[in-house]
Prior knowledge:
Layout lengths: L2 H15 L9 E7 L5 E11 L4 E6 L3 H8 L2 E8 L4 E11 L2 H9 L3 H8 L10 H14 L10 E15 L7 E8 L2 E7 L2
Antiparallel strand pairs: 1-2, 1-4, 2-3, 3-6, 4-5, 5-6, 6-7, 7-8
Bound molecules: flavin mononucleotide (FMN).
The site of flavin mononucleotide has 15 residues, from strand 2, strand 3 and helix 2.
Amino acid sequence: MDEQLANKIKQIWESAKINSPLTQKSAVCVSTIDSAGFPQSRFVDLKEIDQLGFTFCTSYNSEKGNHLSDNPKISLVAWWDHIGYQVRVVGKAVTISNELADKFWSTRSKEAHVATTCFKQSKVWDSADSMENRYASELAASPASIARPTSWGGYSVVPNSIEILKFKANRVHVREQYLRDGTSWKMQLLQP
Ligand SMILES: Cc1cc2nc3c(=O)[nH]c(=O)nc-3n(C[C@H](O)[C@H](O)[C@H](O)COP(=O)(O)O)c2cc1C
């Protein structure tokens, strides 16, 4: 993304965080492609928007991580109702650096660290109660500081196309589609 486009989307995201009615203010939906070719969607927490792309953190061994190692194609969508913006991104996921993963790991709570280290994300477990018991005993036994497991990190969604939709009550939504054109980006308006 060029700097101007990255800043434009970042500004929309910043305003979406103000007066958001949501507890999880930065949740965005990402879709990956499974081995049978079906899209699989789930929410993740958006951590950063910059010229490289849209970054979220997760376990590399999760279902989404496995999808992405087979097929890096990914889409991301956000809907920020209180400011009336939808942002859609299609592109490829690239893993973030260990330094960046460490930075994001350090912003997480001890509880989140333990929840990450004591479970294998997306693998089957038997009961919710025994999961809580496992978590409580791991938390009680955990050291003051927990190092980031190498299996935890993040991906940047490097965009090929981005659409910014400004919702209009009369449904004449303003849809700006940005397409990569070599090293620059072209904008075209789409009908609502
Ligand atoms: C609001 C919200 C935010 C979430 N944020 C994350 C996140 O940042 N990273 C993550 O791995 N899972 C997050 N999750 C859990 C995912 O939706 C998903 O259940 C998990 O990543 C496993 O997905 P997978 O089995 O497709 O890999 C979040 C769930 C919700 C509802």
